[in-house]
Amino acid sequence: MANTGKEYEELVRDIQRSLINAENIPSLKNINIEKNKKIKDRSGIDREFDIYWEFEIGGHTYRSVIECKDYSSPVSIEKIDAFIGKTNDIPGLKLIYATRTGYQSGAKIKAEQHNIQLLVIRDQQAQDWVDDDGTPLLKSIHFKMTAILPPRIINFNVHVDKEWFYSQNEYTENTLPYLFKTELSDAIFIRNISKGEKYSIHDLSRLLMKKVDNMVYGENIYAEKIDNGYIENANSSVKMKIKGYDCTYIYRKPIEDVSIIDFSEQIKAIVEDFITGKKKWVLKN
């Protein structure tokens, strides 16, 4: 499809609107930026301009026009001459030329002589993300989030102190399997009197991270001997002396997620003053 330049004209108009709004000057609000504006010259001939806008400050009207050229090569002096001839019989215009690819040296000289502002309005390029001394600018931020999941206990066995068990009369082998049957894992506690520890089976999942050195991924078994301890409910109304316990657990690899903030995706266009070298970044929205 042939390049008619219409798409570039739309881009330039949008960019100009963004630049005006960024000035945050009340008198410049709601300016109507027109496309294909026809203005009569001194001879009464209609001259058409790609972009036109005007505003009034202190009783004086300021008018600006932009000639947009979406060329694949730098603008020549002949194009600047044509722009000068087109506007020569229309006084009071601020003249601006816009292109993607820059200007030939003769075009620059001619534009400076006639106070024509030369703009390069283009997409961002790799060199835009490097400052004058070659230092790369911050282009993106990568947020790496790692969720370390505690081991999940899938089986738990206690080692009852048989000497204690057969010396007491409260519990029997028949009632033993039902002592904690209705309790949740966060309501069944291991109390290690020798070490001064008390934790629920639910908490044990987290504590395994400290109890097991060099924990490996996958299904594993952990066993602990207890010299003096009990398995009991929350208020210790039900308790049984134990020699230790073992549990089977699954330890999974951490879940990693990376979120990227790419600042380049926020850039709508780069506006560069070809004569002064000053550059502006215009953001989307």
UniProtKB/TrEMBL annotation:
GO biological process: DNA restriction-modification system
A Pfam family: Mrr_cat
GO MF term set: DNA binding; endonuclease activity
Residues of the Restriction endonuclease type IV Mrr domain: 44-119
Source superkingdom: Bacteria
Protein name according to UniProt: Restriction endonuclease type IV Mrr domain-containing protein
Organism: Salmonella derby
Species lineage: Bacteria, Pseudomonadati, Pseudomonadota, Gammaproteobacteria, Enterobacterales
